[in-house]
């Protein structure tokens, strides 16, 4: 029987490789450019033929000037740019060069909407060409000198950030008067000494004042939604008039050296001013309390001061998680009968100096019995739905304080839906996957998650821990 010949079938032709990078639309390429420094944007010319000149038409330019050596190459690259419209122009310069003026003229000629000038030295006046810029929508200026007679015309400006400036009252008032539709104002690391700063705007939605030396500030903004006061601003100098639309507020004052005097019932005027400010913010939905202010609230709790009657639904509190902070958290809970969400953030650093041994009245209690010994909190069984604790490092003393609070909330919050604990594990120096010092605390956390009695049957306890830079979930 003759063998059947096997029919040889030629292999299919290899599929032609497709260069997806070369076929991206210009809009996508420019969108990618918006996330890159200008020097890296120029380097993309080596990726493919289509990308060879794509960078020249990019409407996004982010320049970093670490040294004068790169100035000529930046000037040459800008001379090749063909974009007739620039959407974003950011300059971060450590050095001063005469060619920078040319770059700014380049951006202004293309009616840039998002302009950022960050200088590391106090040598450059704000360019006169920016004084009258109808096209500006967002402007950030850092360490620029402002002439005394400056008059700006920014009819389209919606976002303004002034950082590291020394301005007189009339200068900043002139600047604000030239921004009729301003929606976001950020004053950072500024000094406006011995004056009353008045901010009046019907368009303003966001106001951020960080680490500003101002003797007093009067805020009148009927459509303001978000207010953040942070740093070395003197609480006694803040007056709120007509902020009925406010939704969120943050009080995070950095230096409260008068705390010791508060406990000793001296210089109580600072406490009174903070209380007035909190009363003015009672109707916001979200309140954020910094660790410095929390210490003051702790003194109120110990002194037996009357509680606030706020409408806060969300409380975010920064705590160093010391024994004294428990009083402040208790005061907040009693002052917030409608709170639904409690967030406790534990920062990496202590931004206030507050030694327990100096304030024995705030720390004279047994932490495990603190919460069970407290009178009923109206908000905990009736409204609290979500608790988040972020930035917690396993530590014997802090773990006891934290776990006691978590256990109390789980046992009392009938409507609790979710408890999230974000913990940081220490790296072991003994070749073990987990530092032995954390094993006991980690066991307590797991035991709390699995075996703690809960008032809410539907309450979910999630423990996220970070180990070797990677997040995990228990």
Written description of the protein model:
The longest helix has 17 residues, at about 395-410. Helix 3 packs parallel to helix 4. This protein is globular. The chain has 14 helices and 19 strands. The termini are far apart. The strands form two sheets. The protein has a 16-stranded mixed beta sheet. A three-stranded parallel beta sheet has the order 7-9-11. It has helices at about 25-35, 40-45, 70-80, 100-110, 170-175, 260-265, 270-280, 290-305, 325-335, 360-365, 365-370, 380, 395-410, 435-450, and strands at about 60-65, 90-95, 115-120, 140, 160-165, 185-190, 190-200, 205-210, 215-220, 225-230, 240, 250-255, 285-290, 315-320, 340-345, 385-395, 420-425, 460-465, 470-474.
Provide a concise account of the structure shown.
The protein has 474 residues and is α/β, with parallel strands linked by helices. The protein has helices at 26-33, 38-43, 71-79, 99-109, 169-177, 259-263, 269-280, 291-303, 323-334, 360-363, 367-370, 379-382, 396-412, 436-451; strands at 60-65, 88-93, 114-119, 138-142, 159-163, 184-188, 191-200, 206-210, 213-220, 226-231, 238-240, 248-253, 286-289, 314-318, 341-345, 386-393, 418-424, 460-467, 470-473. The radius of gyration is 29 Å and the shape is globular.
């Amino acid at each position: 029987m003759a063998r059947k010949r096997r029919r040889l079938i030629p292999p299919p032709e290899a599929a032609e490789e497709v260069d997806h990078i070369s076929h991206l639309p210009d809009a996508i390429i420019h969108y990618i450019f918006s996330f890159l420094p200008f020097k890296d944007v120029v380097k993309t010319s080596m990726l493919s033929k289509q990308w060879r000149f794509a960078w020249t038409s990019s409407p996004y330019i982010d320049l970093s000037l670490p040294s004068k050596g790169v100035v000529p190459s930046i000037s040459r690259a800008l001379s090749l740019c063909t974009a007739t419209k620039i959407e974003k122009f950011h300059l971060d310069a450590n050095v001063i060069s005469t060619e920078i003026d040319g770059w700014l003229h380049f951006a202004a000629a293309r009616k840039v909407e998002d302009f950022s000038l960050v200088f590391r030295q106090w040598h450059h006046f704000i360019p006169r060409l920016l004084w009258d810029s109808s096209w500006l929508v967002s402007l950030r200026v850092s360490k620029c000198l402002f002439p005394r007679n400056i008059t700006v015309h920014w009819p389209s400006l919606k976002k303004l950030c002034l950082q590291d400036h020394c301005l007189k009252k009339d200068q900043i008032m002139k600047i604000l008067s030239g921004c009729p539709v301003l929606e976001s104002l950020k004053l950072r690391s500024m000094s406006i000494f011995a004056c009353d700063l008045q901010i009046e705007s019907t368009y303003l939605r966001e106001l951020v004042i960080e680490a500003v030396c101002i003797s007093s500030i009067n805020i009148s903004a009927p459509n303001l939604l978000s207010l953040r006061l942070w740093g070395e601003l003197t609480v006694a100098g803040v007056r709120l008039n007509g902020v009925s639309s406010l939704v969120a507020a943050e009080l995070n004052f950095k230096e409260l050296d008068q705390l010791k005097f508060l406990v000793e019932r001296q210089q109580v005027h600072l406490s009174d001013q903070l209380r007035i400010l909190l009363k003015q913010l009672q109707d916001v939905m979200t309140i954020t309390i910094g660790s410095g202010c929390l210490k003051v609230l702790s003194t109120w709790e110990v002194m037996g001061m009357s509680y606030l009657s706020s409408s806060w639904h969300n409380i975010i509190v920064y705590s160093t998680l010391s024994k004294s902070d428990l009083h402040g958290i208790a005061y907040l809970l009693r002052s917030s009968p409608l709170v639904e969400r409690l967030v406790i953030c534990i920062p990496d650093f202590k931004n206030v100096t507050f030694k327990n041994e100096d304030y024995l009245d705030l720390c004279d209690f047994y932490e495990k019995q603190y919460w069970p010994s407290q009178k009923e909190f109206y908000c905990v069984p009736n409204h609290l739905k979500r608790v988040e604790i972020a930035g917690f490092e396993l530590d014997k003393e802090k773990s006891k304080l934290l776990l006691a609070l978590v256990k109390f909330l789980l046992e009392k919050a009938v409507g609790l839906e979710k408890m999230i604990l974000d913990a940081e594990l220490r790296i072991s120096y003994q070749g073990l996957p987990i530092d032995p010092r954390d094993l006991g605390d980690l066991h307590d956390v797991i035991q709390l998650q699995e075996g703690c009695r809960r008032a809410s049957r539907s309450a979910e306890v999630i423990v996220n821990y970070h180990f070797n830079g990677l997040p995990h979930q228990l």
